[in-house]
Amino acid sequence: MKHTLRRHALLFAALLLATAAAPTPSDIESSAPPAAWAAIAPDDLVVFDTPRGSFIMQLAPQFAPAHVAAIKAMVRRGAFGGGAVVRVQDNYVVQWAIPENKVVPAAPLPPEFERPLAGLTFTPIPGPDAYADAGGFIDGFPVAVDKAAKTGWLQHCYGMVGVGRGNAPDSGDGGELYAVIGHAPRHLDRNMAGVGRIVAGIEKLSSLPRGTEALGFYKTERERLPITGARMASDLPAGAQPRIEVMLTTSPSFADYMKARANRSDAFFMRPAGAVDACNVRVPVRAGK
Amino acid sequence: MKHTLRRHALLFAALLLATAAAPTPSDIESSAPPAAWAAIAPDDLVVFDTPRGSFIMQLAPQFAPAHVAAIKAMVRRGAFGGGAVVRVQDNYVVQWAIPENKVVPAAPLPPEFERPLAGLTFTPIPGPDAYADAGGFIDGFPVAVDKAAKTGWLQHCYGMVGVGRGNAPDSGDGGELYAVIGHAPRHLDRNMAGVGRIVAGIEKLSSLPRGTEALGFYKTERERLPITGARMASDLPAGAQPRIEVMLTTSPSFADYMKARANRSDAFFMRPAGAVDACNVRVPVRAGK
């Protein structure tokens, strides 16, 4: 075992090297000052409970206010309890839903697929975006922008959460949510309402067995992972509220972190890429103190 | 259940619509003529057996001939038998290794991280690549190129396989292989020897429990998925050889397919992206007849 561990530890060893030629992204993350971090507001955190444990979603009300309000209302009246993960499609999405018998709002939700950039602070990645005029970050979320229209939208990066819908743009009701568990399906950008991202426990979803029906839906009820309940973190006792911090994408530390992600120059790397797409920047998230 | 299935079937329904406003990628795939497909040579297919079933890797000798030759030699002398999946890091890689007690070639392998484009046919994606002068495909594999140097290399897309190594560029021996199971870690491009991709059974790897040690290594032997054996498909009885076909990335059907992936215009989509990155094109692969 000793030899085994030593040999394996060698692989991708640079990620652990203290003697790196330049600070690694991990070095920058671990040495970032408190001012570079912000705790996510408990009223923007939804805790979903399952027999595998909980996973936590950070909501993005600044991008989909009506959808986020509808989801919060459903959480607060217990609509997700008795729901389940109904679909797991490899290299695409995990999807969970409220039970069929739960009432969802009758009023259709507006297609909140993009919004004006006015009032938001956009931090661009150093290089081009393959799908839009520019890629970058707003409030810690990966975003792409249309420079002429001055609009922005959430990118479908790994872990991002959107609202399932039918063919009509206003047919999503917030009762079906999906999280990306593969390479970013950017073709969904501006076609779906992005409502947030999983900030804890995504491995409980991404490691689920894949569904065998079309689009990765499970064939039987038995295969589904139950959602035993969902609560707003702000409704939990103060001592029981999860504290999750995100590196401020407007901070100097994040600028250094993004630069390091684009130019890996530690001992392991022969040739820094000189670029990084927003989904591969992977904004640092940590448990708060 | 009926209502449940009907409701769920509505979501992302366009992928199934026969009445789409334009042919979907699936339509193009299913209607592509035989000339648009090529069977992978059995001598380029490695079948890895596990208690979860088999997964199959297509080798890319045109990009890493020495590494591929070393892997084939190890497969043929049974080096992978008794090995295991030792590492599963969420949104990154699954890594499997030969047993510690198996001998690996003493001679170091050359750093086959890129190669001249001469003699290869490169099919570019319609838009820009975030990491290189251009992205596209060669022999069905996602590739990026340096136009000035006239070199190309395999992109680290979902499902692509590379050879683990230490800090020295020639320290990989082929006895540790990793497959990408998350958003493309393109910073590894030109820093690792890409040797192929998983063409069947990747869900058996991507749905494994994530390792809890640094870099996703499993803490105990017990957590590891055993590799009970590996065989070259060409060494199996003719009747037992897997037949796997890949859409020719030089075919008119693939040009149509890639265009449809970049401009989703079926009933579900409000706004076609107008672009697609090579990793999100997802070259069609199917079981051969």
From TrEMBL, chains A, B:
Keyword Isomerase: yes
Domain called PPIase cyclophilin-type: residue spans: 47-211
Swiss-Prot/TrEMBL keywords: Isomerase, Signal
GO molecular function: peptidyl-prolyl cis-trans isomerase activity
Recorded superkingdom: Bacteria
Key word Isomerase present: yes
Protein's name in the database: Peptidylprolyl isomerase
Annotated signal peptide: 1-22
